């Protein structure tokens, strides 16, 4: 069924596991996520960025939001697992309202680039509107950036746990994304991968709500290799390995935002297939490996995070 993101995440919080929040732009990735969720008996959170809304609506983000809600509901209504649809990194009031009106389960207001007080003010406003419509809200504190220089990073970009406490009390936001050392994309760390576990624990202790880890892709070496073998150039790509994700969940992370891993698995499969089948031009056929690899990366992640078997 189609559910409130809050139901999925409060269960995850209560029982100490993480749920992957997986970005889509089109029908195929939705198929893969639903299939993976059913196969693993895992709840799933599907997210779309503002860019995805615009893309799906062929330039009209309101239409895109409506298309996504209809698509996701169509699959969710008959699936035997909880499925939620979330707006990822909502920054524009118009997009957020469009998502709420269309019927998204939850929205993110990302005002994290603003100073603390301003972020709090903007978030509070969105929470008021969203809650009135029965839609739950995620917000972000701190800036997503790797911890290369620890002292500087901690002061400038990572979440301040004391601020997190005030922020949640003041805004009544449902889920909080604290910056703890990850970043978006395929190039997260120059040196060894690391995140600030103590900071997650402190934030969890202070806010006692589901926490979100952004930039959580592992950049799975197996798929990077396949893609590169078939012509990709992902030199220097590095993500958050499974062991770190596991530990982050133990520290209190419940929603694990993942986009890059799906993109890399898909393109690895697509490149491999096209390379080996130069005469093929039917997308239903040339997505074969892309589909397999994308489902594999999702089912593996459900095992790692502990959402497998929790539907
Ligand atoms: O955090 C951003 C997501 O990976 C989606 O990015 O704006 O390219 O759709 P996008
Ligand atoms: P990745 O780029 O690590 O997949 O992060 C995605 C994300 O945080 C979406 O909000
Ligand atoms: Na999000
Ligand atoms: Zn993100």
Compose a concise summary of this entry.
This protein has 311 residues and is α/β, with parallel strands linked by helices. It has helices at 5-15, 27-40, 50-56, 61-78, 93-102, 116-132, 150-156, 161-171, 197-207, 221-229, 242-251, 260-276, 283-286, 288-305; strands spanning 19-23, 44-48, 83-90, 106-109, 136-141, 175-178, 211-213, 253-258.
Describe the secondary structure blueprint for this structure.
Blueprint: H1 5-15, E1 19-23, H2 27-40, E2 44-48, H3 50-56, H4 61-78, E3 83-90, H5 93-102, E4 106-109, H6 116-132, E5 136-141, H7 150-156, H8 161-171, E6 175-178, H9 197-207, E7 211-213, H10 221-229, H11 242-251, E8 253-258, H12 260-276, H13 283-286, H14 288-305
Parallel strand pairs: 1-2, 1-8, 2-3, 3-4, 4-5, 5-6, 7-8
Helix pairs in contact: 2-4, 2-14, 3-4, 4-5, 6-8, 8-9, 10-12, 12-14
The chain binds glyceraldehyde-3-phosphate, 1,3-dihydroxyacetonephosphate, sodium ion (NA) and zinc ion.
Observed structural traits:
single chain; 311 residues; alpha/beta; TIM Barrel; eight-stranded parallel sheet; 14 helices; binds glyceraldehyde-3-phosphate; binds 1,3-dihydroxyacetonephosphate; binds sodium ion; binds zinc ion
If you had to describe this structure to a student in words, what would you say it looks like?
- There is one protein chain.
- The chain has one domain (5-220, 236-259): Alpha-Beta Barrel (TIM Barrel), CATH 3.20.20.
- The chain contains 14 helices and eight strands.
- The longest helix is centred in the N-terminal third of the chain and has 18 residues, at 61-78.
- The mean pLDDT is 96.
- α2 packs parallel to α4 (61-78) and α12 (260-276) runs antiparallel to α14 (288-305).
- An eight-stranded parallel β-sheet has the order 6-5-4-3-2-1-8-7, with helices on both faces.
- It has 311 residues and is α/β, with parallel strands linked by helices.
- The protein is globular.
- The structure holds glyceraldehyde-3-phosphate (G3H), 1,3-dihydroxyacetonephosphate (13P), sodium ion (NA) and zinc ion.
- The site of sodium ion (NA) has 6 residues, from β3.
């Amino acid at each position: 069924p189609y559910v409130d993101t809050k139901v999925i995440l409060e269960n995850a919080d209560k029982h100490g596991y993480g749920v992957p929040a997986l970005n889509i732009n089109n029908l195929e990735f939705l198929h893969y996520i639903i299939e993976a969720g059913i196969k693993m008996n895992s709840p799933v959170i599907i997210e779309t960025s503002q860019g995805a809304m615009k893309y799906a609506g062929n330039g009209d983000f309101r239409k895109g939001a409506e298309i996504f809600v209809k698509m996701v509901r169509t699959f969710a209504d008959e699936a035997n697992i909880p499925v939620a649809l979330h707006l990822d990194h909502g920054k524009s009031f118009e997009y957020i309202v469009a998502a709420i009106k269309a019927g998204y389960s939850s929205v993110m207001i990302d005002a994290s680039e603003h100073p603390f007080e301003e972020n709090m003010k903007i978030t509070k406003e969105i929470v008021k509107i969203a809650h009135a419509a029965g839609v739950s809200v995620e917000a972000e504190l701190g800036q997503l950036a790797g911890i290369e220089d620890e002292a500087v990073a901690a002061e400038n970009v990572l979440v301040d746990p004391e601020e997190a406490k005030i922020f949640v009390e003041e805004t009544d936001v449902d889920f909080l994304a604290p910056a703890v050392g990850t970043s978006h994309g395929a190039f997260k760390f120059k040196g060894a991968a690391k995140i600030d576990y103590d900071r997650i624990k402190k934030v969890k202790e202070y806010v006692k709500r589901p926490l979100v880890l952004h930039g959580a892709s592992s950049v799975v070496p197996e798929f990077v290799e396949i893609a590169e073998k078939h012509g990709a150039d992902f030199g220097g790509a590095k993500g958050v390995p499974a062991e770190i994700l596991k530990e982050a969940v133990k520290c209190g992370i419940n929603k694990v935002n993942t986009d890059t891993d799906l993109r890399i698995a898909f393109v690895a499969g697509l490149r491999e297939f096209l390379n080996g089948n130069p005469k093929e031009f039917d997308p239903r056929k040339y997505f074969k490996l892309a589909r397999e690899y994308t489902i594999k990366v999702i089912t593996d992640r459900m095992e790692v995070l502990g959402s497998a078997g929790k539907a």
